[in-house]
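Annotated sample (chain length 397).
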Amino acid sequence: MPGFELFDDAEKQQINEVMEKGFTFRYNFDGMRNDVWKARELEGLICDTLKVKHAHLVSSGTNALSTALASAGIGAGDEVIVPPFTFVASVEAIVLAGAIPVFAEIDETLTLSPEGIEAVITPKTKAVNFVHMCGSMGHMDEIKAICDKHDLVLLEDACQATGGTYKGQALGTIGQVGALSFDSVKTISCGEGGAILTNDDTIYTHAHQYSDHGHDHIGADRGAESHPIMGTNYRISEMNAAIGVAQWKKLDRILDIQRKNKQALKNALSQYDEVAFRVIPDEAGDNAGFLSIILPSETRTREVVKALGEAGVPGVFYWYANNWHYFKNWDHIQNMTGPAKLPIELIADRPDYTQVSTPKSDDIMSRTLSMLINLSWSDEDIQMRIDAFAKVFKLNV
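Output written by the structure step:
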C-alpha cells in the first residue's frame, strides 16, 4: 500500500487504449468507443475476484459511501452507528445524507465492538457503518448477528481494506452493501475512484441510478433514458477506470508483498514484552496495509512515536493526535460546521457532538501506533525499521 508504488507500463497501456480507441465518458457513445468499456471491465474484475454479484464504480470512496447509504434507503432522520476511529468521510457521508451519526466504542480490533454497537442502538437506528480500518476486520460474526437481530443495514466501509477477507469472504461483501476506495493512497489506485459492492439487486439498481442523476441506463440512447429516482453525479471516468483495470490485475501481487513485509516487522517486534498487536480475528484475511501495535500507556506510546520520528522512520501514525482519523480532533464535526445550514440542524433532538464520550476507544487509541507497509521496501528498508524499533524498545528495558 499504496498501489501507485507499482505503476508501470500496464497503466499507460490501459490509458492509451481509451485515448486511441475509446471515449472518456463511461456511458453511451457506443459508435465512438470501439467496444472499449473500462468501467465495465473493472466492475467485472471486481465481481470475479471478490465473488460479489454487483460492483458499481463511482468517482471516489466518499461517493461510494454516499451512494451506498442512499441505495440502501438510509436518509433523513435515520441513525447510523459509526466508530470514532475512521476517516472524516464516514461521518460526512452520513450527515450529508440527512442522517444522524451515532458514535460507538471500538475494541482492540480497532473497529466497532459488538458491545459498543449494542449499547447505542435506538428505535431510530437504521444502519451500522462498519469501517475495516487499517486493512483488517472486526468480529464479523457477532457484528452481523447484531445487525440481523435488530434489522439493521450493515454497510461495510472497506476503503482501507481492499482484498481483505474474513473466513474466505471478501471484506465489503458480508453486509448488504459495501464500499471501496481507489484514491491515490489506497491499495488499488485509480487516482480517484470508488466502488459499491452488493449482492442485492435493488441496492445495485439504486446505486447505478443514483450516481448518475437517476438514469436507468436502459438502451443505447442516453437522451431517451428514464429517470426512476433523483440522483447526483458521482460517475467515474473511463480514464480513472483504465488505471484501475491495470491496478486490479496486480492485487494478488500487492497483497503478497504487503503480507511479507508486514510479517517481517511483526516477527521482529514480537520479542518485546511491551508490544501487543492489534487483534485480527482472521489473520489469513488481513490486507496487511498497516502494522498496528498497542503499548502499555499513552506516555510510552508518545515516546516511541517521537523516537521513531527522530530516527527518521517515515510512515508512523499516531492516530490519537491525527487530524484526519480520530473524532476527538474533529472540531468541524463536533460543531457540525458547514458552509450552509445542514439537514441535521432541523432535528430538534440531535446529539450534542461536543459531548460525545468514548472512553474505551480513547484508551485504546491513545496507546496505538500504526506503520504503513510499503510495497517498494528493499530488505535494507525493512531492516532499518527493525533496527530503529530495537533501539527504541531497548531504551525501556
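Annotation: The two ends are 33 Å apart (CA to CA).
Annotation: The mean pLDDT is 97.
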